[in-house]
Specification:
disordered C terminus, about 270 residues, disordered N terminus
Length: about 270
């Protein structure tokens, strides 16, 4: 049988830190909100230390999918891009074939596990205030999604640093101080962007009406990680238009997220 290329041993060491979509029982044939997560991949340039776990890869996530539920007004996707919002559970790269659940048909949003709460307790006039966890993670995910969509050969290195910094910032918003000691890639760029994303001093690319949705395998395997997927609303600028708007102050990048430094092949 095909084996996964990389294992991510993110165990449930701190329930208050882990987020997941609401469990929805059933298989794809019985539930309209399920789909097959065919494979997962990531850029593995940047590492970061996660308190309570150790060194892990951090970056955005690319999934190849099939059987995704139809959403009115949009083309049914065959791939998704987003970020891990579940620090301490398992994840795998390569060919997977998992049945995942999406909350996009129901309107999306960040849906935490029982016992975990995301809140907006910061300055209500500043959605980028790190204490506004829900709005801050939403802005980070959608900004990363747009950066990824606008990636090209000329801005690739800068985007990689931004996407790695966004993933680390998302974990830091969930659990302040949970990440430290980044390595790999361009550390000057990473440090600059991580400071911007964690302080809320960046220019979000998300429209005020943009959303995120959550995908999870909690119905079948609660130990698998949960991810927030970018969901810009219809009518926002296309990636090429964003590229023009970004000239002079933003760059770009690509792909998936956390794994233990040692790799283990896991049978599918």
């Amino acid at each position: 049988m095909q084996t996964s290329k990389t294992t991510h041993g993110m165990k449930a060491l701190a329930a208050a830190a882990s987020l997941a979509v609401m469990a929805m029982a059933g298989h794809a044939s019985a539930t309209p909100d399920t789909f097959t997560l065919v494979s997962a991949s990531m850029n593995q340039t940047y590492d970061i230390n996660v308190a309570g776990f150790g060194e892990a890869i951090d970056n955005g996530v690319t999934f190849q999918i099939s059987g995704y539920p139809a959403i009115a007004g949009q083309t049914t996707p065959t791939s998704l891009f987003g970020f891990c919002i579940d620090i301490y559970h398992d994840m795998y790269l390569g060919n997977l074939g998992y049945t995942y659940t999406t909350n996009q048909p129901g309107g999306g949003g960040l849906a935490p596990n029982s016992g975990t709460t995301l809140s907006n307790t910061g300055d209500p006039s500043n959605p980028l205030d790190p204490k506004n966890q829900i709005s801050d993670i939403t802005n980070l995910v959608d900004t990363g999604f747009i950066l990824h969509q606008d990636e090209n050969s000329s801005n690739y290195a800068d985007t990689e640093a931004r996407l790695a910094a966004i993933q680390a910032a998302i974990w830091n918003v969930e659990v302040p101080g949970v990440v430290s000691n980044p390595t790999g890639g361009d550390q000057t760029l990473f440090a600059k962007y991580f400071t911007e994303y964690t302080s809320g001093s960046y220019t979000t690319l998300a429209d005020a009406n943009d959303k995120v949705f959550t995908i999870s395998d909690t119905a079948n395997n609660p130990s698998h990680q949960t991810f927030a997927i970018g969901w810009p609303v219809a009518g926002v600028p296309e990636p090429a238009s964003w590229g023009l708007m970004l000239t002079g102050f933003f760059g770009m990048g690509s792909l998936l997220r956390a794994r233990r430094k040692h790799r283990a092949a896991v049978a599918a």
